[in-house]
Amino acid sequence: MIDHLLEVSSPSYAYIILGGFVVAFSMVSLLVKEKLYINEVVLGTGFGVLMGPHCANIFDPRSWTTDTNRLTLEVMRVVLAMGLFAIGVELPQSYMAKHAKSLMIMVVPTMAFGWLVSAGFVRALFPNLSFISGLAIAACLTPTDPIICAAIVGGRFAVKHVPLNLRRLLAAESASNDGLAYPFLSISLYLTTESSRRAAIGKWFLIGWLYQVILGVILGSILGYAFSQIMKYTQNKGFIDRQSYVAQYLALAVFTIGVTSTLGSDDLLAAFAAGSAISWDGHFNLQTENEMFSSVIDLVLNCACFIYIGAWIPFEQFNAPDLGITPWRLVVLFLVIVILRRIPPLLLLYKWIPEIRNWREAMFSGHFGPMGVGAIFISTLALTRLETPQNPPQNQEQLLAAVLQPIVAFVVLCSIIIRKHHTYPTSTPY
């Protein structure tokens, strides 16, 4: 027993750390969020770094299992699914149908532009990597993170100063493009692992688009719509109460990702589609109105996730000259991504997006592109499909597997740090 208590980074410490952080944050949340304009994302990450192996060495998730990637993948999957389902539920009735044109214009060209530009600079800054490897890394950094997005646009200052239509558009965009990162990643990986480009493109179309994306959306929509009809029926029969509606909030999100991930489809898009479908006619929203349980669950999951990320970040890999990774290259890459990933395309396209009224809102929307849970999830998913790297890497696939997470983790860390300034009065265009 004493040996267990003395064991550094025991998994049981996670409960103490998470519980203590949530209790402490709850006691000063109003001061921190509304006066200091800092949300649980930044504080959770900082606390994770402090408790992690590079500081106090109390909380080290990498020591819990030999397959850290699998653990990380499932933690990020659950948190993302809950966040995406929540966004789908909280959007107004039939929002996706009414704003499909704006979302299509905002999501697809912006993602494609950022993907290609980021890949080009990855190739330029890390000369050992091929352009195809750059595309794989850029695919992980393409989506806007829905968890950080929700924490920012849902804040009191954003509610007061950012127009409602723009906040809804940014939330819907962050949910849509998170699942659409799959095709960008899959074409990169197929081009890396397949023997011919023809085979890679064929698999990308059949598996990346038809099986993963389209089937995932269809499955999520069917599940969401089916459960909404079943709940209406059971309510009419007097079989379900208000609290059970709120329970469906958590249960359906988990059920949806379980079904779609088992089938190998896009579980993130499926979760968002299920949330949108279950609230399509507004009935589910009416039944769960003023219920705070889902918000509490979101807060606890977000705190746990970002504490995990803070402890998980591989600081020791940010300087690996033998792999071509140096701090100055990482810093330059991050700055380029912040400036060029979203701002130029949105400044060019905003006139075709009615929800964005002027160039200042377009600039705000372009700068608003946090990278976080989604980027870590996609990069970890990529590692499960790549060859395990030797030391030193023997080919381009192994080199990509070796440098993917350090590059993505550095960009995510910097993105989390600067995104707290979205809530500062001096940084908003309104």
Question: If you had to describe this structure to a student in words, what would you say it looks like?
Answer:
It is a single chain. The chain has about 425 residues and is an all-alpha fold. It has a single domain, classed as Na+/H+ antiporter like fold, CATH 1.20.1530. It has helices at about 1-5, 15-25, 30-35, 40-50, 70-90, 95-100, 100-125, 130-140, 145-155, 155-160, 165-180, 180-195, 195-235, 240-265, 265-280, 285, 295-310, 325-340, 345-350, 360-365, 375-385, 395-420. Helix 7 (about 100-125) crosses helix 8 and helix 13 packs parallel to helix 15. The model is unreliable at about 420-430 (pLDDT under 50). GO terms for molecular function: sodium:proton antiporter activity. This is Cation/H+ exchanger transmembrane domain-containing protein.
Strand content: under 5%
Unreliable stretches covering 5 or more consecutive residues:
421-430
Termini separation (Å)?
58 Å
- Biggest sheet, open or closed, and with what strands and sense? none
CATH topology: Na+/H+ antiporter like fold
CATH class: Mainly Alpha
**Helix and strand pattern:** HHHHHHHHHHHHHHHHHHHHHH
Whole-number total of structural domains: 1
CATH architecture: Up-down Bundle
Compute the number of strand runs: 0
**Overall mean confidence score, pLDDT:** 83
What would you call the quaternary organization? single chain
Radius of gyration: 21 Å
- Morphology call: globular
User: Counting H and I runs of at least 4 residues, what is the number of helices?
Assistant: 22
Helix residue percentage: over 70%
The chain-level structural class is: mainly alpha
Domain Cation/H+ exchanger transmembrane: 25-418
Subcellular location: Membrane
GO molecular function: sodium:proton antiporter activity
Keywords: Antiport, Ion transport, Membrane, Sodium, Sodium transport, Transmembrane, Transmembrane helix, Transport
